[in-house]
Amino acid sequence: MSIKDAPSDSLADAVRKIHAGKIIVAPELVTEAWAVDDPLSENERKVLRFSLEGHSSKEIGDLTFLFAGTVRNYLSEATSKLGAKNRIEAARIAKQKGWL
What we know:
It comes from Brumicola pallidula DSM 14239 = ACAM 615. The chain has helices at residues 8-19, 27-34, 42-52, 57-64, 68-82, 87-96.
């Protein structure tokens, strides 16, 4: 059911709640959001966790026994998959979605 098909009393109630500063989320959107699969590989999640802690690519490489170039590749892939502008934003997005 779309919002235009909702009963008018439900719509009026939603408008009152929004006007009062509350957030209204349609149940079908919540269900859809939880259905999104984690696109990240285990290595991408690992390097994002270290990145979120502020480690450089070289430090992450030392901690994970990977070359710094490999770390940069994983970070680049994760950033691209999540549509982020940089690795910090990618880590934040992944954390918000519960993937880290």
